[in-house]
Amino acid sequence: MEIFRHDNIDSTSSECFRKFDRGDILPFAVIAKTQAQGRGQFGRTWYSADGQNLYVSFGFVPRQTPQQFQNFSTIVAENLVECLANKLNMALQVKPPNDIYCAGKKVCGILTESRILHGRIIFAVTGIGLNVAGDLSKFPKELRSKATTLGEHCKKIISPAEIEAYVLLLMQQLMEKYKFLEKI
């Protein structure tokens, strides 16, 4: 899987759609240190200005029908919780369908979007916004009581690069396990 890195971008998911429209070879991942227009479920904004967190989107073509594919964000959340809980020795919970919580606060959001043509998914993007070690005092006031970071609850110092490696490996494994990759 090719990885494209950016210091700042409007949205990693939007960049995935642009790359698909340009005909880039799939699958790929887009990672940014910050996003100006990160997005979440129901058109909500995902705060993503701090370079100490992870903002990554994966572009791929699943082989499933839209109905078979509709729970992919939940599958990603469940597997990411298991991976991070084991690697970091901490308690995390999935709040269905696509959020991860730690100590009652949101630490991660997952959003899967797709393009469908004639009842078939022609392209999908799964975006992950994960608060790793960012400064919560810099979060918007309305989010400070609702959001947290892995670093706030982990017994060891963690970096976005460490978490990025886990997420990239996990997504590659999920795509292979569930046969979500189609050779184009």
What's the quick description here?
The chain has 184 residues and is of the alpha+beta class.
Spell out the key features of this protein.
BirA Bifunctional Protein, domain 2, seven-stranded mixed beta sheet, 7 strands, single chain, 32% helix, alpha+beta
Tell me what you see in this structure.
- With 184 residues, the chain is of the alpha+beta class.
- It has helices at 12-22, 66-69, 72-88, 141-144, 150-153, 160-177; strands at residues 2-9, 28-35, 54-60, 93-95, 99-102, 105-117, 120-130.
- The chain has a single domain (2-177), classed as Bira Bifunctional Protein, Domain 2 (BirA Bifunctional Protein, domain 2, 2-Layer Sandwich).
- The protein is built from six helices and seven strands; from the N terminus they run βαββααββββααα.
- A hairpin with a 3-residue loop joins strand 4 (93-95) and strand 5 (99-102).
- The relative contact order is 0.20.
Strand neighbour order, sheet with most strands: 1-2-3-7-6-5-4
Kindly identify the CATH topology.
Answer: BirA Bifunctional Protein, domain 2
* Terminal-residue CA separation: 13 Å
Spell out the CATH superfamily.
Bira Bifunctional Protein, Domain 2
CATH architecture heading:
2-Layer Sandwich
CATH class, named Alpha Beta
Q: What is the succession of H and E elements? A: EHEEHHEEEEHHH
The shape, in one word, is globular
Tally of strands: 7
Largest sheet: 7 strands, mixed
Q: Tally the helices.
A: 6
Rg, rounded, reads 16 Å
